[in-house]
Design a protein that fits this description.
By secondary structure, this protein is of the alpha+beta class. The longest helix has 18 residues, at about 250-270.
């Protein structure tokens, strides 16, 4: 895991010395992604400069140092990430070629694979997370590549005479000041809590799409667009390939066996490391499954990490500790007070580079910081929901599409409005009272918020509209202007024939929410403290096998993620895991009315809101005052605005 950056400037060889200093400044901006070693490459005749910040994970010697040159001398690479099947690829190369290796890094294997078989054959073979830049001296081309799921970021700035790229926006902000705010990106962030690829907060910068590569001919360069990139992998093709398997009469037992087999292999490959590693453990289905398989693969106790809160509505640490004790891991837990996290709130704009407002970014940052005190690599349970049908919206979508769609949408909108007329706090009080007599009700938390969220989707017109209502965090237009809708296009998934509503949502989440929210959140949080995170659920074979599995085998017997529960049942008693799904959240609702009130007010004052000229001041003030009154929970819309405001006030 590392950080990469670089730039090309046409006809600028006379400024070579100045540019040598510039590339070092750009690299220094992402030294948190790779604090162990810095490396630089310059081709002054072409005015191309590359920088690499190394976080040493495999081959800690100088043989793994980057930028790395191929044996033949034709290619130079700067690589960020991990190729998990590099040992298999290495054996494949050795079977047909006589190769003398300098070291044992995956970067070296990747380089020689490209040399021997070419980029078009090499890319589909890669199983891993990565973003890399490859300079071909012979063809004078620069190739930029991103992994198929978007685990690793890659930003690209383009002008008529220059190009810059980086793992984060910070180096690009050093390279040029000619950056303007993308108002459509702000609109998307205020609606979904993130800015979807290929867009960024700046009009002049785009994100390379996952599963894509961009080839830049430096000899004829006059600017590039995100539409110039080409896919080497797309989920649509996978859905088509696996459709016959999903429709077959494969038995449940065979499905469970095949899913467990590929997941075990994925976990095993992600445990290859020359530095200490562990796992995040919340005690939920996903992280428990990964920790259980890791412990079975290891001949010693694995290290697991959890954080806890004294607010019982948000605390998962007790359960995580119970799971860790049963698995026999070396468990580490850290209980946090609000102030432990609140001091990081003013730093979020720097960590996430552009406005990003999934509030679970805070606990994610804290658990990463805590784990880094003990390990350099951590496996996570992220993406288990998208891959194995875990989100409640998949179940809700299947049920609502088949039942509520028969009721006129106008009537449903009316009923939804009535339900939202009661404050979440009132619902919580009602649930607490009923919970005294019903253990089934007592185990549920955040009842009021869930009822409000559910009631907002009542008026859906079709399954695509239903999905959009379920994932939207703001129902208001908080801007003063109308912008283009740049949300991840839904037509591909929702117009695809012969798949269920749940599968359409899973598809859409995989190319939207998962990439732009979940993976962004974890990458920026972990890399801010120089911790590498690995996601076993996003193994190529695991993803393909999950899509080959009939939906009824994943949503089985009214249970989500049944293949994962089947694995866990081998290690953890079922009654221990039989509990409501809990998110990795923090009490933003109460913090905004108490500990964070002064900070929030400073960003939500009329003068502060008017600063950018983009925000609807009166509407946002109304939302803020409504939240302060306690009559309605507006935390999601407010957190979206606050994260934009914090970014804007510090960047502009």
């Amino acid at each position: 895991m590392c950080g990469i950056t670089g730039f090309y400037k046409r006809n600028a060889s006379s400024m070579a010395v100045e540019f040598e200093q510039l590339i070092k400044k750009m690299g220094a901006k992402i030294d948190h992604r790779g604090p162990n070693q810095q490396g630089y490459f310059s081709d002054q005749s072409n005015s191309l400069f590359l920088a690499h910040q190394r976080l040493s994970i495999l081959d800690l010697t100088d043989a793994g140092k980057q930028p790395m040159e191929s044996f033949c001398g034709r290619f130079i690479i700067v690589f960020n990430g991990e190729i998990y099947n590099f040992i298999e690829l290495k054996k494949e190369l050795e079977a047909n070629q006589n190769i003398s290796w300098r070291g044992h890094s995956d970067t070296e294997v990747l380089l020689e694979l490209i040399v021997r078989v070419g980029i078009d054959i090499a890319l589909p073979k890669l199983n891993g997370m990565f973003a890399f830049a490859l300079f071909d001296k012979k063809e004078n081309t620069l190739l930029l590549v991103r992994d198929r799921f978007g685990e690793k970021p890659l930003y690209i700035y383009s002008a008529n005479d220059s190009l810059a790229f980086a793992s984060e926006l910070k180096p690009i902000e050093v390279y040029t000041k000619n950056l303007t705010i993308n108002s459509a990106a702000v609109s998307a962030q205020l609606k979904f809590s993130y800015i979807p690829a290929p867009h960024s907060i700046y009009n002049e910068v785009f994100k390379l799409m996952p599963g894509h590569y961009l080839s830049v001919d430096l000899s004829t360069y006059c600017g590039v667009k995100y539409t110039d990139s080409k896919p080497y992998w797309e989920i649509e093709q996978l859905v088509k390939e696996t459709s016959s398997l999903r429709a077959s009469d494969i038995s449940l037992e065979e499905s469970l066996f095949e899913n467990e087999k590929v997941l075990r292999k994925s976990v095993s490959q992600r445990m290859v490391s020359d530095v200490p590693l562990g796992a995040f453990l919340s005690g939920g289905i996903d992280s428990t499954c990964i920790a259980a398989l890791m412990q079975e693969e290891s001949n010693r106790k694995i290290k697991t990490f959890s954080i806890g809160f004294h607010d019982k509505n948000y605390n998962e640490a007790d359960h995580a500790k119970k799971v860790a004790n049963i698995l026999g891991t070396e468990h580490h837990e850290l209980y946090l007070e609000p102030n432990d996290m609140l001091e990081y709130v003013p730093k979020l704009h720097e960590i996430y580079d552009e406005p990003f407002s999934d509030s679970s970014q805070l606990p994610t940052l804290m658990v990463a910081k805590f784990a880094k005190e003990h390990v350099t690599v951590a496996l996570t349970g992220d993406s288990g929901d998208e891959v194995f049908t875990g989100y409640n919206r998949y179940v809700v979508g299947e049920k609502l599409d088949g039942t509520l769609s028969k009721i006129p949408s106008s009537l449903r909108r009316t009923l939804g409005g009535i339900a939202q007329g009661v404050s979440p706090k009132t619902y919580d009080n009602m649930a607490a009272f009923v919970g005294k007599f019903s253990s089934r009700v007592k185990k549920h938390t955040r009842v009021g918020d869930n009822i409000h969220k559910f009631s907002r989707v009542f008026g859906f017109s079709n399954d695509e509209d239903l999905y959009n209502r379920l994932i939207t965090t703001s129902e208001h237009n908080l801007l003063t202007l109308t912008t283009n809708d740049i949300a991840t296009p839904t037509n591909q998934a929702f117009k695809f024939p012969d798949i269920s509503v749940a599968e359409k949502m899973m598809w859409q989440d995989s190319i939207g929410y998962m990439q732009n929210d979940i993976l962004t959140k974890v990458d920026r949080a972990s890399m801010s403290v120089s911790l590498e995170t690995r996601v076993p659920f996003l193994d190529n074979d695991v993803f393909k096998q999950a899509w080959s599995t009939p939906l009824s085998h994943k949503l089985h017997g009214n249970q989500t993620k049944y293949p994962l529960r089947h694995i866990i049942n081998k290690y953890i008693p079922e009654d221990v895991m039989n509990r409501p799904k809990a998110g990795f959240g923090v009490p933003i609702y109460s913090w905004l009315r108490n500990e964070l009130r002064d900070w929030a007010e400073s960003l939500l004052s009329e003068d502060a809101l008017a600063n950018s000229g983009l925000l609807n001041v009166k509407l946002i003030r109304k939302i803020w005052l409504t939240h302060l009154s306690g009559s309605k929970n507006m935390q999601y819309e407010l957190w979206n605005v606050l994260m934009f405001q914090q970014w804007y006030m510090n960047k502009c």
